[in-house]
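Lecture 7 notes. Example A: sequence first, then its structure tokens.
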Amino acid sequence: ERFGKPVILHVVRSFDRLFALHRDIAPAMPWLVHGFRGNPALAAQILDKGMQISIGLHFNEETVRYIGASRLLIETDDTPDLTEVASRVASALGVSVQDVIAAASANASLFLKNAVVGVEKEL
């Protein structure tokens, strides 16, 4: 927050602590949980708190369907090939790879734009 940067987090079995910290800080900057493999209920809690989720090569298909393309971010943390991730996500959603890439690109742009807007609010 002090530096006006978004936060990208790798969280393993510590979501209660994450939620408490997020509540206490009440950040203006966006937070993103990357490499998320959890279930839809946990994804709902993260999204309801205004955080974002990024999906890599390994994910829960029910969770991806819950998140949907409108809020989905994809990553290459566990593979060098983003197209492979997009292909697996597209299969889970029943849409084209191009649709996943377009949606994820738009969502990434929005995530970064929100980071800039957060900085402008601080100024």
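Example B, a different protein, same format:
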Amino acid sequence: METVFGEAQLLPSQVKDVGLKTVPVVWRSEEVINGHILLAGGSGTGKTHNIRKIMRSYLDSAQGGVRIHVFDVHDDIEIGGESDIIFSEASDVGLNPLEIDPDRHTGGVKKTIQNFINTINKTSRKLGDRQEAVLRAVMEDLYAANGFLADDPDTWSLNDGRQRSRPKKHPNIDDLYRWTFFKYKQLFMGGDSKSAAALDKVNREAQKIFRMMKDSPTPESLEKLDKIKNEAIDSYSEYVTTIKTGRELEDLLKYDSKTTLKSVLDRVGNLKDGGIFKNRSLNFNEYNPVWRYRLKHLGTEEKKMFVHFRLRELYRNALKRGLSDRIVEVIILDEANMFMDADPDNIISVMANEIRKFGTSLVCASQAFSHFTDDFIASAATKIVLGIDEMYWDKTCRQLQVKKEWLEWIRPRRSALISMKRNVMNPSDKTGRIKWFFTTLKQ
């Protein structure tokens, strides 16, 4: 793949080495040490325009096809004809963060739970220590109830060879909410799962009868309710008489307290009611090379969680796809600073360091390089400075080892500083030693 950014005016010292005053600035995937590109520019400097240019050039020049994922937070990165989905509370499709990777080395129940908790904690409302412990206990029990045992890797796949009356399935966010609510009622009332289920049945039947009959229930309906009540009483009696280990109550107390479990229930309920976790999976057109995730209508916290969960899925899929000597997948992150932090386990940092060999490249845009960590900047082979606010100049000069007058030279939408680290060069290309190109952009 290749992208023609424009033409560079060489410095006098560069002219002496190259023998030319101007050279075309062409990005070629087979020449750069990796496909990662960072673009920095303030509002109105042309970030969106250049992202569109990169997308079109990739589609035009990719050998063997390429899939482009566009995480569009402003709803303005369109090139026409792409497959797109709007994500909001009204959307009927979304992500399932509880799906388990069956690989015994990279996946499993405990890793899925930890990734779920870590991603929630990327938001401004982090879970407390007690909430984390309770949520972990609830999720482990939910997975066990669905046939996924934390300490048995043979159970981590859907087709684990075991006979069941119903097909095995991954739990989803609705299942997690129902399970947490069930455990809350169980802890609130005491008893085991069977007795709690019996009590739940009593309440549901009572609501049904009195809703249908208003203030005049029939004798038959009251008789039915009395029968169900007696069944619940029998279940609680059975629970008491079948206590064997003396740890039955302790098994409930791992949920800490009704207050802590209720706070976890409320948090799961908020996640369920947001616009990103749905029971229907993403329905992009499989034959369309560009998948556009339209995130404008999500809140900041939802955007952050959506991107982190989806990137984990793409990372896992890339590992399954295996090694590749060409770029087959491109991930475009607009306003990437929204999703970045200094955590080395941040999925974006992990992908920047590891995803290249699996044929995936990152194209990340932000208003300044200071929004990225130094390690993340170093991991990207290509850097494009489109014009940044003066307040960021000093730090940018230190980060990129450039001079302030170079940043002053940039004219928004007309020129840019571009750097490309290359390891494969055409023998006739004498620009290999040039670190920064003073580029007049091609419109």
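Note on Example B: The CA atoms of residues 3 and 53 lie 8 Å apart. DSSP finds 14 helices and eleven strands in the chain.
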